[in-house]
Structures are given as C-alpha cells and as structure tokens.
Amino acid sequence: MERKIKMDRVTLGKTGITVNKNGFGALPIQRIGKDQAVALLRKAFQNGIRFFDTARFYTDSEEKIGCALADVRDQVFLSSKTAAETPEEFFSQLHTSLRGLKTDHLDLYQFHNPAFCPKPGDGSGLYEAMQSAKAQGLIRHIGITNHRLPVAEEAVRSGLYETLQFPFSYLAAQKDVELVRLCRRENVGFIAMKALAGGLITNSAAAYAYLAQFDNVLPIWGVQREKELDEFLSYIGHPPVMDETLSAVIEKDRKELAGDFCRGCGYCLPCPAGIEIPTAARMSLMIRRAPVKNYVNAEWKEKMERIESCIHCNHCKEHCPYGLDTPRLLRENLEEYRHFI
C-alpha cells in the first residue's frame, strides 16, 4: 500500500502558480561550476521542486538553469528579475534572460529592488514596458522585489503587482509580518527571500516551520551545495511542524540576534576600499554561528583588516535599505574579530 505523503503547497496570489513550499533560489549557483550547478538543478527538479528564481544580475545563473531545465520547461515555473532603468534596457535584459533560460517566456518577471514603485505614467516607462512584454507573451505575470518596506507596501496596495518578493524569516519584525498579511488581503503572492537571514539562521527545519505558518508565503532557499538541497528536499514529503523544540530554537535565535544586524543583501557594494561589507559587517555573528575555522584564518584576517582602509565615503550607509550605520558596524565587528585571533 502506497504511503500518503503530506505536502505543503502555496498559491502565489492571483497568478494561480501553485507549488510546494520549496522554491529554488538560484543566486548561489553563480558561485559554482556549470556541471555542478546543472546537476544540482536537475536533482531539485527530479525530487519535486518546481519554482526556480533567478535574475539578470546573477551573472551566469540563468544560463545554468537553461542548460538544466530546458527539456522540462513546461513542468517548471521560471522567475527572473530586471534592474533596468529605461524601457530599452528593460527589453535588452529581458531578451538576454530568455536566451539564457532557453525559453520563449517567463512565468514571472520582477523589478529588482527599485528605489521607487514603478507605475504607469511615472515618466520612467518601466511599468509600460512590463505591460508591453506581457501583451507580447514574453512574460506571464508581473512582480517586484524590494528591501524597503515603504516601497513594498506601496507596490502591494497599488494593485499593479501580482507578487512581492521581500526578506522574511523568523527574525522578521512585526511590521514585516503585517506586510505578509497585507499581501494575503490584497491577493498578492509573497515570495520570501533570505528565509535563512543570509546564513545567520542555521536550523532550516525551524526556518521552514515558521514560514509554513503563513499559507500565502513561498520561501526560496538559496542553494549552493547538495547537502543543503537534500535538507529542503526532505521537507517536501515530511514538512517540519512547529513544536516546542523548534519554538525554543527560534526564541534563542531571536534573543541572540536582537537589534541591528546586517542582512547581507549586498546593496552597499561596491566598496571603494575593497571591504567585503556583507560578511565583514556581521562577522561576530558569523563566527558564533558557523565553524570558527571558516573565518578565523589568514584569508579573512586580511579581509577584515581592510576595514582600516575605509575612506568614510558613506556609500554603504547611504545605500543600506535597512538604514544601518554600516561604518559603525564594520568597526565594531573588526574590534570583536581581533579578540578571536
């Protein structure tokens, strides 16, 4: 007798896209070789993952997805993003994405973290370009990603967007939870990026169980290694459920990570002093939550000391979507790092 498998599924708002609660976040595969990436993507597909999210900004990620999934294109949902600032750039990026992904259309195309909410008649021509692409059948649904709460809220309330992609994990603030609820009321699909808080959350079962409590949320897990993929694949048939043990993990992490911390989004880059800000600005936390040998070594000592070369241009501070005092965080992390070595 075949065992009945419980499976958590989510529908992305009015798009009608319905998949299990394990989206594949393809940013990390740009860091590995083509053969390794293709094998990872094929394994994900063969074991039930159907939603794959990438971006034109993610170097060769789209090409790797195209190589891995072109022959099963009709069985998957492909989502990409554009950071275009003009209609001409919009269509150039879109056609490049389509070629790389080896498809004639995208199931979801998203504006990639714009500083404002694109709307018809705003003078940029960007939303009109989205509408034109949809009318031509090049894209099926229109979405937006953001790290700025006011922009995200405006997009959801505008009625112009079918999905929102926003950072969301059990470290989220109450205002972020309210954003998820707003999306549910407005029937806008919510795609949760950084569900592991950029690597600060190390218990994926707790991360999954927390997000599973929101029936309108699709997490996209950033996957680079097969062992990471295997964890999430195991949750398709056996989804973790919130219990006392996982609740205790979440409570402990919330206390440890309370206050301001770098989410590792990378919008502070490039740094003119060559500082690897997304890691350096949260080094003290990374050391506590990962094997010490990963960061207490000659390579990272040299990288952390680059903080001394900061020219105080404030580029990082001005571009942080969370309003963090990044130079202060860098200095504090350098001082604490020196205590470890």
Give start-end ranges of low-pLDDT stretches.
1-5
Structural class of the secondary elements?
alpha/beta
What multimeric state do the chains show?
single chain
Strand portion, in percent?
Answer: 5-15%
Tally of distinct domains: 2
Shape: globular
Cα(first) to Cα(last) distance is: 58 Å
CATH T-level fold name of the largest domain: TIM Barrel
**Rg, Cα atoms, Å:** 20 Å
The level of helicity is 40-55%
CATH superfamily of the largest domain: NADP-dependent oxidoreductase domain
Helix and strand layout, with pairings?
Layout: E1 9-11, E2 18-20, E3 23-25, H1 34-46, E4 51-53, H2 61-69, E5 77-82, H3 87-101, E6 108-112, H4 126-135, E7 142-145, H5 149-158, E8 163-167, H6 174-186, E9 189-193, H7 204-212, E10 217-222, H8 226-237, H9 244-256, H10 277-280, H11 283-289, H12 298-305, H13 315-319, H14 326-340
Helix pairs in contact: 1-2, 2-3, 5-6, 7-9
